[in-house]
Amino acid sequence: MKIHTPNSSTLLSIIFLIAFSFIQGKDYDISGKVVDSNGEKVGKVTVLLLDKSELEVQSTTAKGSGKYKFKKVLSGTYIVSVDAGELGKGSKKIEVEKKEFKRYRNCSKIKNPPTVVEEAL
């Protein structure tokens, strides 16, 4: 995989494909994939799960495929934050609800300097 260094007008699209799966009545797994504006996977980047006060709950590193997973997450409001170094940063607010299964597909476009603009898919 070849990653280019963007200039100030380059947009980075980080797509969070977030799936919540029900575990033991109160815990959920949150999994997703990080890709660039061309849909190419972006791996080996830091992905943080923050609470609504922006305190770190969990952190992980996306695999080479861009996939990441947080395990045993309680229901509540969180922020999934991605730091892709020179490619940019992105974050998305998510809500984990007390339902058996919930699936979200979210897209955040990141400009340099980072500015989050929500876009429906």
If you had to describe this structure to a student in words, what would you say it looks like?
This protein starts with 10 loop residues before the first strand and ends with a strand. The protein has one domain: Sandwich (Immunoglobulin-like). The strands form 2 sheets. A 5-stranded antiparallel sheet has the order 5-2-1-8-9, with no helix packed on it. A 4-stranded antiparallel sheet has the order 4-3-6-7, with no helix packed on it. The chain has 121 residues and is mainly beta. A hairpin with a 5-residue loop joins strand 6 (76-83) and strand 7 (89-96). Mean pLDDT is 68; it is low at 6-25 and 100-121. It is built from no helices and 9 strands.
Write a compact overview of the structure shown.
By secondary structure, the chain is mainly beta. The protein has one domain: Immunoglobulin-like, CATH 2.60.40.10.
SSE topology:
Layout: E1 11-23, E2 27-33, E3 46-51, E4 56-61, E5 67-74, E6 76-83, E7 89-96, E8 101-111, E9 116-119
Antiparallel strand pairs: 1-2, 1-8, 2-5, 3-4, 3-6, 6-7, 8-9
Per CATH, the class reads Mainly Beta
Corresponding CATH architecture: Sandwich
Order of helices and strands: EEEEEEEEE
Distance between the termini: 25 Å
By secondary-structure content and strand pairing, the structural class works out as: mainly beta
Shape: globular
| Individual helix count | 0
Give the % helix: under 10%
Supply Rg. Answer: 14 Å
Number of strands: 9
Strand order of the largest sheet: 5-2-1-8-9
What is the number of domains?
1
Mean pLDDT: 68
How large is the share of residues in beta strands?
A: over 45%
- At the fold tier of CATH, the topology name is Immunoglobulin-like
